[in-house]
Protein 1
Amino acid sequence: MEIRRIEIQNYRGIRHLEWRIPKGKRFLCLIGPGDVGKTSILEAVYLALSERWSLSIADTDFFNADVTVPIIIRVALANLPKDILSHRILGMELSGIDESGEWHHDPEDGSEPCVIVQLTIDADLDPSWVAYRPDGSEPFISIGSGIRRKLSAFKLDERIDMHLRWSRSSALTKLTEQSHGASGMLANAMRVARQAVFSSITEEMSQLAKGVQDGLHRLGSGNFENLRPGLDSSVPSSGGLLALFENDVPLTNFGLGTRRLAGIATQEMGLGSQSILLVDEVEHGLEPHRLVYLLKYLKTTIRLSQVFVTTHSPIAVEQLDLTDLFVVRHSELGISVDQIPEGMNLGRALTRSRPSSFLARRILVVEGKTEHGLLLGLLDLWDSQRIKDKLAPSSALGVAVHDGQGGSNAPPRSKLFADIGYETGLFIDHDDKSIDKEVEAAEKAGVEIFRWTSGKCTEQEIVESSSAQDLAELLEVAKIFRVDAKTVVNDILAVDKDIEIVDLDVPGWLRSNNIDLDRARKAIHKAAVRYRWFKRVDNGLASWLYPRLTQLKGTTTGNLIEEIRLFLYGDVDSLSPGMSVVNSDG
């Protein structure tokens, strides 16, 4: 059994969702930033397929808390087992679904039989499950909890401990209720346990019970003769005093990860090979190695017919195939879920090199390590200022800076992100004309392009906008990574053999030698590029550049950096260095 199509209307943050799931896709991982609806999608599916007859629904579960518009959840199930196809109710209410996910009133040529479960919740909060028929007229046939139990859906959530006990609706109870004699065994055990408790009562406990008995008599409540502490045998039938133990320690005392894994194991046994598993935040409670193993197991096990998970873990993204990932996006029109297409050659490199980018809201792809280090440093400094100004930092806004690993790779990587729905920017040099077509293709795909003046790279653009004193301080930054001043001087002499310098004092060069500022700039930027002064993530460029942004306002360098800042933060409310702050309270 497999889910082929999901429709959700007016549930929580989802105004509308139509998700057509590829036929035969048995493992699906929903990714994307927080608060876009991933958890709500899983919860909606579980509500529709759950055997529960009473749901914990409140007015706030309606979109915008508007109870005048009903919640409607439809789930189409195909590849149905024989017992459902032959069922006297579901077998008579079969629809059809084709390869594209289009459903039809009846199974037709080119489509396979499916059952469409529809859950409707109106303002009275009373849920109604029916077998929906496309293009059909109501009333639809009601689907009771007994029938929904055959659909075998299980959601792993915070109620996991329930499934480690023999409680009323746990998997363990389902496994033992018919043939293992758990009820009779528990009844006999409770009789023995009651007598054991009675024989272990201390004198203090007896006196306490005697005091309660006397109080009841004073209040005229009955005629008690032997009130005493004991074991209440009415609890196990619903609360689950019979539980799984490891020696003398109940499994519910173990760590969260172990309990979640045990919950999956019991549900697999309880629901059978046609079950559908829903796991929100699959990494929750698991160390990286156990997460990796669990993902491999869920992808390959034949004990489950289909698995849906959500994740915020880069480790999970890194381990999965590109086509296992489904990007969830939120817009004014509703929620969209898009599979990352097959055949994207760069996709595997993206998930391996920086998987966290797939979990962001907004991505800036940068050409290489120089730009990567510059932007990461600027983000730290901008974030510090924003926090002081009581504004959200980049991490809270879901911003990611992605190393494009070279001018030929960065444009197609940015295009891939844009093609699958991410808000994407590209920060790249302009000294390589061979990649112009790739940059143009990225821009047509919706990527916002941030590029230096034609013919220039980052080092050249920054150096040519700097004064002599700024350059002297930039050389001090280069000295950190080139070990000493002598090495930096030798680098400059190697690109301009006729320049006469012995130190890093650029203003001194101009005073004592026949060197003008333009020549000094040219020699410095060439040496920086040739000897890769700043080709590292911790290159120190941001700390050098940040205090100069105010004086660079209106220049090519200053304008481009400001455009990048506005793209990353998506607003105009953070201030450039040196600008005053006026709070709303005056």
Protein 2
Amino acid sequence: MAKKDAGTTRGLIYKRILLKLSGEVLSGSREYGISYDVMCSIAQDIRCIYDLGCEIGIVIGGGNIFRGVSENAQGMDRVSADYMGMLATVINSLALQDYLEKRGVPTRVLSAIEMRQVAEPFIRRRATRHLEKGRVVIFAAGTGNPFFSSDTAAALRATEINAEVILKGTKVDGVYDQDPLRNPKAKKFDSISYREVLAKNLKVMDLTAITLCLDNNLPIIVFNLTKPGNIGKAVTGEKIGTHIRG
């Protein structure tokens, strides 16, 4: 598919984004696996911003299948557990690719762990070229190294492709001073600085990811991924979620 004309980027505040999807969201109401309805909704939302001309990189977590720091990994060697979590992100990436391509969105999966039968190896220049050609790029297998989360992978890949923002889709509608699912009186922040996130030890993203965004002045928007249309609202500048910036 040919690259979209630059004139199709109507209404966009951000031309190139990195979308970070929480693996836990993909399971929907189930405790494990991939929800058909959730994936259809996410794929449709991505299709909508793709049609506006947005260049889209995606990093997906693997928490709906396996996380290296989960209870299921207790007693396991941390390195082995983390690699299992990376492979879980590959499964999610291939699933999202299928959902997107069935909606006419050309997609490439680039893996930090080489597995040529199912994904291209991650090469920064190749990823950028795919984006320029109008393809959605899904970055799988985290950073390819243990001890780093998918949040850190998102911050790293966003920096490498010169994304203008990280959109972090979660189950909640922003950043709170406490867990809003446990405390209904938790206070939501409309905007907050990186340093405040670090000082308050807010569990938005891990400290490595936040620090990387701080060092590269890369803004983050945290929003509720489960509500259809929210991705589009974020890229077109509507007030949504929590904005994290310097």
Protein 3
Amino acid sequence: MNKRVRVSVQGIVQGVGFRPFVYRLATACHLTGWVMNTPSGVVLEVQGAAGEVRCFLADLQVQAPPLAAITAVQSEELPLAAGEGFVIRPSGGSGEAVQIAPDGDVCDDCLRELFDPADRRYRYPFINCTNCGPRYSIIRGVPYDRARTTMAGFAMCAACRTEYEDPGHRRFHAQPNACPDCGPQLRLLDGQGCEVAGEPLAAAIELLQAGRILAVKGLGGYHLAVDACNEVAVMELRRRKHRDQKPFALMAPDLATLTGYAECDSSAAKLLQGPERPIVLLPKRRPSPIAAQVAPDNGYFGIMLPCTPLHHLLLRDRFPALVLTSGNLADEPICYQDEDALQRLASVADFFLIHDREIHTRSDDSVIRVFRGQPVFLRRSRGYAPRPIGLPATQPSVLAVGAELKGAICLTRGGQAFLSQHLGDLQNAATLRSLEQTVDHLQNILQIRPQLVAHDLHPDYLSTTYAESLADLPRVAVQHHHAHLASCMAENALEGEVIGVICDGTGYGPDGTIWGGEFLVGGYERFERLGHLRPVPLPGGDAAVREPWRMALAYLYELFDDRVFELSLPCTAALAPSDRKLFLQMLQRRLNTPLTSSCGRLFDAVASLLGLRQKVAYEGQAAIALEALAETSPVTDHYPFSLTEVEGRLVLDVGDMLRVLVGEIRCDRPRAALARRFHNTLAVAASAVCETIRTTTGLERVVLSGGVFQNRLFSEGLCARLEEKGFQVFTQRLAPPNDGGLALGQAIIAGRSILCV
């Protein structure tokens, strides 16, 4: 018995080999019909035996190409029609704009060809097909075809053209398709930009083996590479890049090799081997062949596997790992244009391994850590952007521009939110230009015209200034921690109101103070601050972020007044005796000491008290050191704390905890146990606040967001305690819990504000 079915498929289904996949699947099932691209996705009709049609529909999603991401499938039965065979029709129709695929790693088929001496693409660094290779980074405009990518200048040879036009070939309409005869080529340049004689790849490998620093052009920008086992080379890279302590990322040739110096469970292995190729944080193994200065004072390596054919060729059978860190100087966006890289990285790189396929959109590496077997983004970028995140409901189109740190923008269309790649910290003109370019590019390729713009409540952020410059769009200012709450709610498709535990370093509060340890109740339309950490002075403002001893002394001053310097603790030794009186006067008179309830600054204070960090070279360094130390202790008890009600809000006071902690430090108790007990205390205290809020609100859903939830110990401890008390706990998996996911929350809050008018 025959039947005919019409199927509409939405999602990332163009430029990923979906039509030839449908062609092969329909042919294998002995079905007739057709498939075509439309502005909203792919539409197809199949006809044949009812059983074969059922098998086709079942396999359509299960066996989809690796770069495809299906968001919706709708089917309807039609009357039977005449026709023979199955064909791929020209594109047509009208409707919503398509979605753009992220960049992807080399597929297994291309990898086999890359290392097959009999293949015409043997050792060709730009091999790709519809299942892999560059996408987002090379697209200039839509619709997605070769003429609107940076491959437009490379005319396909006859052999490549035959593959491109064959519906049965996996390179059918693969826009970056090329070979050594017609495609991009490698070049090796010295520090002055002059061509180096010889075969570029072989020469580059020899230079890396000799300890030289290379700038290597990747998918979304330049990396700086050195042999990760060469301590001298790693130290020289640190010196030239002015990056004294922040860990470098590693690239390993394969999974088997990296397990020699890092612990990798099945969840991490799956992430590492996926087409997105993120950096994944993995616990170190000791002893290790990796240079100590790759990730000093850190229990983890950030490791990725090769993400382009070029990287496979550089590493295979030659290096246990390469350092592959972003090609930029401190606080600057990653270099992605050749001339810019040659200029900006001239003081860092000895040589440049470049090619003539232009990168249109820069995109740094994504960074992930595994939590409860699931990914938590520390940075969402290459491989994931601009993959959409589903919203709980459709809404007007909004542009959201984030805050200051971990910059990313968000555009919404209907029921989807498109988060951009990581842009960096918006603290200089170069990063602001990158934000402006990303807004223009995403609006163009996604065909989105926003109806309003959302930004952070802080008036001095560059992102706020940019939003204000868009004079033709209404603006919505969104409180920082409300946006965190909404971001977690949105990706978990929650409606109504929830309890939000929002812990981070800095967020501008409506009361003019600096928030960061917050217990909110609310949803997309409103929020109420029902609890927070007890505010303490932030001595020196931003200086306290760079110098944790300031926060330690601020907390101690609250407990011990001007006797603080009699305690002989590591943090008291950080301040010269001649400056102590002046510092006390700052606290006594509240000079340049805004109040803060920041949880991130509390972590800094405890790290300083334990002597781990008195100054930091990068954001979160003190907290990372504190967590690494705590992970070495098995203790399960916690310190005392108190909850009081002040002006209708719960105030979590950790003064008792710090008083006991100081006593234990002075008694020379094991620091690891003290660090672990601190983490336990915060988890117990936060769950106690949620319990109290539940008694008055009846709410049992809790969302966790903010940069502090990058801390595995605290997150695990709080989740476990909340679940034991019967709460439903929601964390972030699709967007970063840090400020990189903030634009998602801003976008849905702003969108709902229109709907509520």
Protein 4
Amino acid sequence: MKRRTFLQTSGFIGSATILKSPSLDNTSLATEPIIIATWKNEKGTKSGWDKMMQTGRALDGVEAGAWVPEADPNETSVGYGGLPDRDGHVTLDACIMDHLGNAGAVTFLEGIMHPISVARAVMEKTPHVMLSGAGALKFALDQGFKKQNLLTPASKKAWEEWKKESKYKPIVNIENHDTIGLLGIGKAGEIAGACSTSGLAYKMHGRVGDSPIIGGAVFCDDEVGGACATGLGEFVMKTLGSFLIVEFMRQGMSPQKACEEAIMRIVKRYKYQDFQVGYLALNKKGEYGAYSIQKGFNFTITKNGITQVIESASYMS
């Protein structure tokens, strides 16, 4: 396999320029809010960008961006309408991180429409980083969140069909086993990140992936930038990909090169032909990069009110 050089798209799809490596000084920080997200999430990034334009805060933007797929019954990998585990439970994982290094997460949460907001409440209202299962649910209810059934008729029907054979094998780029990861830069130039998912379809009851793991699904450092992940979370956790990408950028790599190097950590060690992992990175200049193992990973960006979906480069091109 040959690794392909990725020409990072700027402006409209089809034009390209090679990103320069970031510096850690403050002379060339992003001057406009920007938000990026994994997969085709135009409504999510637009909603997040609009929220940042209202409040100025990157944290508000990434939370608002996650709200869109969390509440969409047609998005079978995130929140309401998510495909259940093999026992028929829709269980949710999410995390959020701000520019100060504060973070919150929930795992194995059931019955709450917006786990990303519960994660933010964990960050802002408790001394902890992560709450799980029944404890996370109790906390959410105590904070005023409402419990509801997240298993839609369509997802229940799909689960009942799956039970006939109960064959468990994630399929590359089928988004019923992917997440939404988001990164944003606010009006003050600060970075924030978020991730939300209902996890692998038909997973074992109790399985938790990378989506609530700080340093796995999301990591932000306001001196450098941020990164987020999607795909088969077990391999993101085993390599702490988002943290790794931010550290590569700290060393001077461009966001694109950092994503490529993080993917290489996986392909050099594991049998990668049957699963997908994709990474996004955003530095404090507003430069971004993306790379994945398999072809077919795309991401969405909203900047200056313009939203684009961009195809990522991949190792297996």
